[in-house]
Write a structure and sequence with these properties.
single chain, 524 residues, alpha+beta, D-Maltodextrin-Binding Protein, domain 2, 2 domains, five-stranded mixed β-sheet, four-stranded mixed β-sheet, 19 helices, 14% strand
């Protein structure tokens, strides 16, 4: 294999990022100093709403005619059982273009973390693993020595990804080594209160919902809807947001430093602390507990980790939920729940290093082909549309405005349909019906460009020295998190959670986070 020098790659990457920034396609690279900054540089999405011409043309045949088959594991929320024809089409494209196809395994959302953990424990062969859910995250798998250093393969066989992703590549790196590729999507997210629009309209509550600016009045609205319908909330808090203030718009978005256990809080001065000790978080959870005790929260949520809020709304037992997402959340949630959704924005969440994407596990047998495959699918709009919306004219059609929509007479239960942010380059996917032809451009050149970015962007905690502590933290989390998150707890439960965490050595883990974050901010 011919290896490029790493310094040459960095120089080339910096030149590409600088060129993109000069064209005003995105902001500058993330700084190492505290404070607000522009989003990292990245390539702008194609303006045309239809698939790019390259996706319509026949792919060039592989040079030697040989085909390498990758073993791949990915997350499903019920769509995997309907995806055989999609993967067949994807394989046809990549087999002809680069001589690589995939043996694609789906694992369901609620079981995915366990599936990955068992696979790694048994040294099962996978060339690429889709990461998003704890413990199937970059941070956790890296801490367990489950990932391969893929730097040389990515630099040799995936050159386009460095230009496309720029500084976002840092989200899958530690100490200058790269272990995977992040999904590229609208990283500019917000906190939301999401409601079933049909219920608000039927009860004449749209204007009232819009006018509410405090949690006391919002609680009364929830109570009135519950009294009229018998329905409940399907979720109660947004990740990366703390709703301590009585004023809804004063909710605080923060960077959790990719903590999988929702326990790390970092303020704007770089101070790391336990979220359970945050006074505003305590106020938030006391409010949620009041909701739970009043019957406003679905009582199955604390018990069933495999049930998603979207599924609860889809099943017709919930009137709304509190969530975090990106602009266009109403359209995305309508697709996943089957109901029209109405949204109120509560907070701006700083752009942080997310865990979604693809990693090279230590059992990867074909790293060159895996890097080549990633480089191709991230650059090809047809591949992104396949994994997002399915096969054109089978699972979706394209409107005259250039929007994807369900074929006449079909809905989400009839076709292959997923979340566009989960796969490759979301900006190459056709916007879905209900948004606008320029939706991707708005996300890239307005939302991402102007959104605040965390001063800690690119920080990845190295937890190799904390395995025993993390095992204890995971045990405490599994016992107490859901009951506290959804309000099904007592004061004694809350203190017991703290006690069990401290007994596991959580304070030492906090000190480790602080030490490593300080070093990162100092450029060490």
């Amino acid at each position: 294999m011919k290896l490029k020098k790493w310094i040459a790659l960095l120089i080339a990457g910096m030149m590409a990022v600088s060129a993109l920034a000069a064209c005003d396609m995105a902001g500058t690279a993330a700084p190492q100093a505290a404070g607000q900054a522009e989003a990292p540089a990245a390539e702008a999405p194609a303006a045309a709403p239809e698939e790019a011409p390259a996706a319509e043309a026949e792919p060039a045949a592989a040079e030697d005619g040989e085909v390498t088959t990758l073993k791949l594991l990915a997350i499903s929320l019920g769509w995997g059982e309907k995806g055989a024809h999609v993967i067949e089409k994807l394989n046809e494209i990549t087999r002809n273009a680069i001589g690589v196809d995939v043996d694609w395994e789906w694992a369901e959302w609620g079981d995915y973390g366990q599936r990955v953990s068992l696979g790694m424990a048994s040294n099962e062969h996978f060339d690429l693993i889709n990461v998003l859910l704890s413990p199937a995250t970059f941070a956790y798998m890296y801490s367990q020595n489950q990932l391969m250093d893929a730097t040389e393969y990515l630099e040799e066989y995936a050159p386009d990804l460095w230009t496309l992703l720029g500084e976002y590549m840092k989200t899958m790196s530690t100490n200058g080594k790269y272990y995977g590729v992040p999904t590229f999507y609208n990283y500019a997210s917000h906190g939301y209160i999401l409601m079933r629009k049909d219920i608000l309209e039927d009860l004449g509550l749209i204007e009232r919902f819009d006018a509410i600016d405090n949690w006391t009045d919002m609680t009364q609205l929830f109570t009135d809807i519950n009294s009229e319908t018998g329905l409940t909330l399907a979720d109660t808090v947004s990740y990366c947001t703390i709703y301590g203030s009585e004023i809804i718009a004063e909710a605080e978005g923060y960077d959790p430093l990719k903590d999988s256990y929702n326990l790390i809080y970092t303020d704007t001065e770089g101070n790391v602390s336990c979220k359970l000790d945050n006074p505003d978080y305590i106020k938030q959870q006391e409010r949620v507990r009041d909701w739970y005790n009043a019957g406003l929260v679905n009582h199955d949520l604390p018990l069933d980790a495999g049930t998603t809020p979207d599924q609860i709304v889809h099943d017709g037992t919930a009137f709304g939920f509190i969530h975090h997402s990106e602009i266009g959340v109403e359209v995305a949630k309508e697709q996943s729940t089957g109901y029209p959704i109405y949204a109120k924005t509560t907070s701006d969440i700083p752009i942080t290093a997310r865990d979604g994407g693809w990693v090279f596990p230590i059992t990867c047998a074909e790293p060159e082909a895996a890097a080549k495959w990633l480089n191709y699918v991230y650059m090809d709009p047809e591949c992104q549309n396949l994994l997002s919306w399915g096969v054109k004219d089978v699972d979706y059609v394209v409107t005259e405005e250039g929007l994807a929509k369900y074929p006449d007479g079909k809905q989400i239960s009839d076709v292959f349909h997923t979340y566009d942010f989960m796969w490759f380059d979301c900006f190459k996917a056709l916007p879905w019906d209900g948004t606008s032809p320029d939706y991707r451009d708005i996300c890239m050149n307005q939302e991402m460009k102007n959104h605040p970015i965390s001063p800690y962007f690119g920080f990845n905690m190295n937890t190799n020295a904390y395995d025993d502590i993390l095992a204890g933290v995971a045990s405490a989390y599994n016992q107490y998190y859901r009951m506290i998150n959804y309000g099904a707890y007592t004061d004694e439960d809350y203190e017991a959670y703290r006690t069990k965490l401290n007994a596991a050595g959580f304070e030492d883990l906090l000190a480790g986070y602080q030490e490593q974050l300080d070093a990162y901010m100092a450029g060490e």
